[in-house]
Amino acid sequence: MVSIRKQENYNELVYNPKLKEQARLNRKAGILGEVLLWQKLKNGKINNLDFDRQKIIGNYIVDFYCSEAKIVIEVDGSSHDSKQEYDENRDNYLQSLGLKVIHITDKDVKNKLNDVVAYLLNHPACSAGTPPKEGN
After folding, report:
1. Do residues 76 and 104 touch, judged by C-beta distance below 8 A?
2. Spatial strand order in the sheet of 51-57
3. Less Cβ around it within 10 Å: N or C end of the chain?
4. Per-residue 3-state assignment (H helix, E strand, C coil) for 76-93
5. pTM of the full predicted structure?
6. Chain segment 7-65, per-residue pLDDT in tens
7. Nearest-CA neighbor of 59 among 17, 101, 8?
8. What would be the CATH architecture of the domain defined by 7-128?
9. In 42-105, which ranges are continuous DSSP H helix?
10. Which positions ≥6 away from 90 have C-beta within 8 Å?
11. 54: Cβ–Cβ under 8 A, 6 or more apart, which residues?
């Protein structure tokens, strides 16, 4: 059973509507590491938490967002190598909103997906979800 989205948390973040098309394109792009991780995050598979993919927060598009636990998960690939300052500014902004930012390397997602899932299942930030009902 997937947790019910808490609308008050979901809609409380400011976002730049000009980024809607880019977020849609990002979802369609099908970056392998993100697609693999999405298969493990969607439908409450991580501690029954409800994640969104390519969520706009402020002037940023984050890879995955859970409003209930206020978590952002970023899959960092080689494109992040030259964007340390951008990533730092984004993380500072997200953290100023009370969000927890978890970085996972694209390489780990592709090569150690089970370890990544175990890491998230046991991560303190991801423990806010309600356990699934028995039999689900």
Report:
1. yes
2. 51-57, 60-66, 71-76, 100-105
3. C
4. ECHHHCCCHHHHHHHHHH
5. 0.84
6. 455 567 888 999 999 999 998 988 899 999 999 999 999 999 999 999 999 999 999 99
7. 17
8. 3-Layer(aba) Sandwich (3.40)
9. 84-96
10. 60, 62
11. 23, 24, 26, 27, 61, 62, 63
